[in-house]
Design goal:
Blueprint lengths: L2 H6 L1 H30 L5 E2 H6 L1 H9 L10 H21 L5 E3 L12 E5 L3 E5 L2 E7 L2 E12 L11 H17 L6 E8 L4 E8 L10 E4 H21 L11 H5 L4 H5 L8
Parallel strand pairs: 1-4, 6-7, 8-9
Antiparallel strand pairs: 2-5, 3-4, 5-6, 7-8
Helix pairs in contact: 2-5, 4-7, 6-7
The protein binds iron/sulfur cluster (SF4).
The site of iron/sulfur cluster (SF4) has 13 residues, from α4, α8 and α9.
Length: 271
Amino acid sequence: MSIKDLIYDPEYFLETLEQSCSDEITQYMDARTEEWKARGKDKAIRSSSLGTCIRQSYYGYFSDRESTPIEDMFARKRMYMGFVNEETQAKILGRMDGHLHGVESIEQNQFPVHIRVEEDVVCTATTDFVHEYDYKDKKYYVPMELKSTELWKWNEFKYHPYHLKQILLWMYYAKEKLNLNVPYGVLMYTKRSTMENKYVIISCDTRFEKMSREVQKYDYWKPWLDNHVSVIKSSINNNSLPERPTDVPQYLCKGCTYLDLCNRNANVETK
Ligand code: SF4
């Protein structure tokens, strides 16, 4: 096949286009998989799973995290579009004052986007972007967790609790364990077709109330965070399987690597 075919054969043009799409997504997602592997090479409790399901986090801690590449092309395309949204938002957020962390994908493995607490059990949390501000000889950090969606019930939608818990865990480790100044955090949803944004502000060191804004208070969640982190740590230290949570959406369980173990209430075999 040649340039001549591209000129005279529209079908060949479309086949080439589809192949290019597949090559681009494969190359991009393979690079992301390498980063996930690099991030997951040590044993740690990760905020993405702890925010979603304590049991998944427990299983994940004990399994050798050889993240299985996602083969399904539809799933890969959905994820790819999520990353495209992040890259677009990075351009927008980069126009704001302050230093924006998280623009380069390697930063997803580095402080302050990725934070690491080394205690008896290592805990890590990763968010998408962190704005760093210098003010009166102090540094301030505002984390942002971004999600893009095509939800058809967009108007009624507020947030998914497991997304909120994910960013809350970043804030918890940053504030309570690393003593960083965290005025507030932002969970932001973008509707892909229209670029409309929805925000949840998690007020922490800054008080914030405003009609029509979705606001969560860090102090309200603090006891839950204390308890949740303490339960996962003691479960790991005692090798005891945590109770199966009742609030994990079915679609997440369906895609969970540990579904079979979990359905059997089976513990992992530790070495
Ligand atoms: S199957 Fe569901 S409840 Fe069980 S570990 Fe996975 S996400 Fe958690």
